[in-house]
Amino acid sequence: MESTGTYWQNLFSALTGFGFDVILVNGRQTRNIKGKKTDIKDCQWIQKLHTLGLLSSSFLPDSTTDIIRTYSRHRQNILKQSTRTVLKMSKYLRLMNMRLDVVVSDIVGLTGTKIISAFIGGEKSGEKLAGHRHYNCRKSEREITKALQYNGRDDYFFALRQEWETYLHLQNQIIEIDRQIKEHLEEIIDNDDNKKQHVADKKPYKRKNKNTIRGIDMAQISYQYFEGVDLMAIEGINDATIMVIISEIGLEGVKKFGTSKQFTSWLRLAPNNKISGGKVLSHHLPKGSNRLKIAFRLAANAIGNLKEGHLADFFRRINYKKGRATAISATARKLAVIIWNMLTKGVQYSPPKEYMFLDQKRKLKLVNRIKRNIAKFELKPEDVGLALVYNSYYLYL
Length: 397
Prior knowledge:
Elements: H1 8-17, H2 39-51, H3 63-95, H4 100-103, H5 110-120, H6 126-130, H7 141-147, H8 154-190, H9 193-196, H10 218-225, H11 239-248, H12 250-255, H13 260-266, E1 274-276, E2 279-282, H14 291-304, H15 310-322, H16 324-345, H17 358-377, H18 386-396
Antiparallel strand pairs: 1-2
Helix pairs in contact: 3-8, 3-11, 10-11, 11-14, 13-16, 14-16, 15-16
């Protein structure tokens, strides 16, 4: 069966339900037909190619992964709608001389949300609106007051109010989707004793994006879903990357690829070498990308911003030789190989150079500062009361 849009899905489900072994084929493999193209000739051409063994089956996730993928992709679409709504709100605020985007980094953050709610509620004074400033906001109340001077345009105010209501509605939809994803993941884990028995250790701090799924401990969920394999130990991997792996391919989907080379080739992260007479004519990456490839590239870009770590050193070496674009692709491919080996072989991430998370860096920095101060002031244990503690401890023993 040729994959054409979404039209194949109902027929594919019906045929597989009756016990047929259906091979779904990419349209690129079947398009080179001579003469005028008709449905009958197309079917005959596909049958001939399949008889000669020239068609390969496309990857399809299992049924449970397919359900999570539907929720996840729907969530991404709503997030895009929410982003467009925020841009429209910023536009109407600017036209009303309410330069909220100048004094806050995110107009729907803690400070921006309170100010917009109060403004739509009827408060037009810039001084009173600035009173809703969060204590972490970098701008002072005086600067925020000067930026919020309403010019009295009621038409823009009406449009802003409707966009704000749309934004709140979309946020409520995202909360409902997050609840559905959480329930479905917990159901998958509860129905599998091999997944349910694993308990993840407490993780060091990792920064989270505001658009990550709320109400889910992704470190624990992913550790159980992947049957004791900790993908969160890899630097650059966050909640969003884990969710894309679960929703787009799943644990069983990764195991369908026999080697890591097949996996990276399917992701279009491996170079497409064209060789003739022993000479390499070209070795560019194939065109096209899926959501999993984009997630790996985003993770690779985040790794490029790290100051230390095994993958960060690898990124900098490629970046120095061939530029950042090539380094992102190479690091994304390396990430894909690491994840394939971890999931298929059940091994943990063990880089030659260990990466330190934010909490570990803070602890090490504090310890080093204490050591420098002890050496600087030539302190002894009895000067800070440690000798008494040690003596009491040894006396107790």
